[in-house]
Design goal:
This protein is of the alpha/beta class. The chain contains 15 helices and 10 strands. The structure holds flavin mononucleotide. Flavin mononucleotide (FMN) binds next to strand 2.
Amino acid sequence: MKWKLTDILGSPYPIILGPMRFITLGKMAALVSKYGGFGQIAASGLTTKRLREEIRVARTLTDMPFGVNFPVYRPKTEELIQVAVEEGVKTITTSAGNPKKFIDRIKGAGLKVLHKVANIDMAKKAEDAGVDAIIATGIEAGGHVGRDGATTFCLIPQLARALSIPVVAAGGGCNFALACDIRIASERARFGEVFVKRGVFPDWGGVYFLPRLVGYAKAAELFFSGEVIDATEALRIGMVNKVVPHEKLAEETRKFALNIANNAPLPIAFIKRGLQNFGRMDLAQALDFEKMAVDTCWNSRDRKEGFKSFLEKRPPHFIGC
Ligand SMILES: Cc1cc2nc3c(=O)[nH]c(=O)nc-3n(C[C@H](O)[C@H](O)[C@H](O)COP(=O)(O)O)c2cc1C
């Protein structure tokens, strides 16, 4: 599958290893890239000599592209970027500041750059400066970028509306998936609400979503214990809808999505609104909404097409009105 982002990264999947100072070095970056993600070496705190060595370590472990992250407020950023250029790195990320003063250097060397931000102002400045994509990370970003402002969950839609370049959501993991309508997991997937093991509160709405999927008691068990469960257990407790062979994850997910996309958009939109809101309504309100949705769908062009296609024994062609 191709996205604007995979073009920028040069990797098969639009999944980026979050850079972590002194943790994500050559070996870890290479492993992520080797399996199709975009690994990153955190340059923060490294000397130019050490960064060069780490890039070379990664290079010996994978032919796939990987990047380097530069927090721009730190000393020697220019020299460190120069090392990445000399070592043939094609895409880098910047964070913690305005990347404008390094853009000519980066772009002049033909590199792509994604910049990590915590709010719209920073994102706009970075877009104006000429970065290729934005990585959005809210207040929960491991102590980085910004501690005032929105959580990533709130920031993403704001940025997606405000910018014309791709926006990458940082963090999230398990709880990001819980916020989706449907989850399809590879048989190799593992899920864990491990926050209590490090003394932090679960982010991305996890405490809201998980009990709605698996019930209060199971959610409490997973949150309080920090236990990591496999895909089979996640399926058993209703955390995921389906588990598929690892190699078929993209194919099966696409098939599943295309099947939904072939159905009538209008009733699906109303059903989604009902699913999200009926829990907050009383029965009379829910039935009022239902009547409005039934009438609107009945009078739609797609309902007529649905009936006509049934009589003509052909697949319907829905247009969403
Ligand atoms: C220990 C640690 C070190 C980090 N170092 C960096 C860094 O050097 N540069 C950077 O841009 N972000 C850094 N981050 C932020 C992460 O890359 C990531 O954006 C953030 O942790 C959000 O993802 P998460 O919710 O999965 O933790 C660091 C985070 C942690 C926890």
